[in-house]
């Protein structure tokens, strides 16, 4: 089965990358591939809880990500060093995720058949 | 080898679109095939028929259209991304009662299923501007 890896490196609010990634992930999930979502660098901020996006007059984009488990997209990985560098931990995130270190992230990227970057 | 190319940046927003076009030409020049070019997010701006470029600057929207026409490529722009950005073909302009169509005829407006389909069927999918 084809393994798709969605690789999130952009933060929320500066661009529409996060919303577009969620749309693309949900559209792909219909075809039932092996599907992994990896958050790295500023991409980890996508999952930050309590973003209070209403003060910007925008939708709460973090809430978009909570749709993933509903559609059985449950393999969510977060690069732990990226979290730590930003003073964050798993407790600050809106979803249950698996933490990966550098070696695990490299292996994940190497294993995937296709990588979609956002 | 079969390639799909995803373009996520607009013609003027970063080097992504130009790099994608150069990469696409290299793919064909090396005897490979391009199954589809999928324009997502700001990438949909590459389909604009309304851009006006100064004479000493090349117009990437024209370059993509010409490349697609010559090579008979499947150039697809994401409908959800396109509508929000005012990228409409005649059908969508009529449906939403807008004053003009803005998408070049070489491009097709379609859904994200076309991206997923490409990702699952090609040998290599390469994203630009991601």
How is this fold's topology laid out?
The complex is a heterodimer of chains A (118) and B (130).
Chain A: E1 3-8, H1 17-29, E2 34-39, H2 61-65, H3 67-70, E3 76-79, H4 80-85, E4 98-100, H5 102-111, E5 114-117
Parallel strand pairs in A: 1-2, 1-5, 2-3, 3-4
Chain B: E1 2-7, H1 16-29, E2 33-39, H2 60-71, E3 75-78, H3 79-84, H4 90-95, E4 107-110, H5 113-121, E5 124-128
Parallel strand pairs in B: 1-2, 1-5, 2-3, 3-4
Helix pairs in contact in B: 1-2
Structure description:
The complex is a heterodimer of chains A (118) and B (130). Chain A is α/β, with parallel strands linked by helices and 118 residues long. Chain A is built from five helices and five strands. A five-stranded parallel β-sheet of chain A has the order 4-3-2-1-5, with helices on both faces. Chain B has one domain: DsrEFH-like (Hypothetical Protein Ychn, Chain: A), CATH 3.40.1260. Helices cover 36% and strands 20% of the residues of chain B. Chain B has a five-stranded parallel β-sheet, sandwiched between helices. In chain B, helix 1 (16-29) packs parallel to helix 2 (60-71). The mean pLDDT of chain B is 96. The A-B interface holds A 2, 4, 7, 9, 15-17, 20, 23-24, 27-28, 30-31, 33, 114-118 and B 6, 8, 40-42, 78, 80-81, 111-113, 115-117, 119-120, 122, 124-125, 127, 130.
